[in-house]
Amino acid sequence: MSFYKLQLMNGTSMAAPHVCGAVALLMSGLKQRDILFTPFSIKRGLSVSAKHLPDVCHYGQGHGLLQVEKAFEHLVANGKEVDNRVRFAVTCHAGSNGSKGIHLRDISSVDKPMEVPVKVEPVFLNPDEVAAEDKIDFNLRFGLTCDAGWITHPKHLDLMYTARHFLINVDPSGLKSGVHSAYVKAYEAGDPDKGPLFEIPITVVKPEPITEIPRPRIAHDNVVFTPGMIKRHFVKVPKGATWATVTVQSNETKAVGKFALHTVQLIPKKVVRTFENHKMFTLNEVGEWSFSFAVRGGFVLEVLLAKWWANIGNLDVSYNVTFYGLNPEAKEIVFHGADAIVRVDVTSDLHLEEAQPEAKLKHLVQNFRPVESKVIALGERDIIPPHRTIFELQSSYNFNVAKGTEITPNVAILSDVLYESEFISQLWMLYNSRKQLIGYGDAYANKYSLKVTWIEFRIGLYLT
What's the pTM value of the predicted model, to 2 decimals? Predict the structure, then answer.
């Protein structure tokens, strides 16, 4: 329990309960006035009434700052509208998979116009319980707007209770390097003042050009950072690059600065943390700081450099991102029992590199097949509303160790995945031959290493 009168907190661990409390206030007030509300109307009321903060990063505030009173006024004024009971499922086919918006990041898709098919489908809350007459009578006419000149879209949409398709043309060819975003917003033609009923977010990431000589790199000189200032750069990592080095140089003789560095690459079918790095560092007078990290060639890298908000004063710095590459012929080395020597060829596609090879045998990986596997339906507590049953795959694996050692159970195809996972949860439990529980873990294998002695074991894997 805290006895502080005030406390500064941030992050989703604070934001989520704060918004939940605000939503509880809204629901309580609407119930007292006997006004209809649904999850769709609450969400729409919060987003429409939010206050955009001009001095805060556009990509760090969503729709803006929560405004509880204005949200309540919006919900009261529009409590009898038919769209309160409806959400609008938007699907954009900018790639192979449909998504809620249009996100163009690959360099091949940001140098020419692209026509993106969009599907909008109204869905009632609990649609199976909605009368057929309500579905037949449903009809909303929208005006579509967008303030970005590089986006072309239809001006009107007549929507019945069925999916409607239309095209949005995105022409990023004239945009500068960096990230650009816009929204196609849909307003009800007869009542535009109640705000957009749905919107289609569009984001274009256009990488900045790389200087090839003497090495592939981007460089920015004499940049003056103020407290809280963010510089964000996107660059297409050259083919053959395996690591990059960020170097930051202070041009000040009488000032010290504190900075944050964040780098990330989005790799298909990989969790974000696979190629993500966070670093805090202090830059002394005329000092230099560098950091090297792994990258994947052919994918866009985002590099974010920011001056710490509490670090007072301006600072003049120069910084660059330089790419290097060493590619072994084989990512894994397998020794046959009769092999004395195994050759590994290493190439560098970017530049001449000096390498000092070193080999250490640290881990032994063993694969096991399940000795027993079954799918079961979970109980009444494990139901997705209103009545969808959750199933669980239960598999058992037997193994033994010859001496005391440390083991790390790992279901490789499912590991290190959170929100990207196609499954609800993953749990494994390790038992010895006497059915004693030794340990347990989840999808983050590197967090769970268990010390065991010579004995037989069984692992139970539970996947829902």
Answer: 0.76
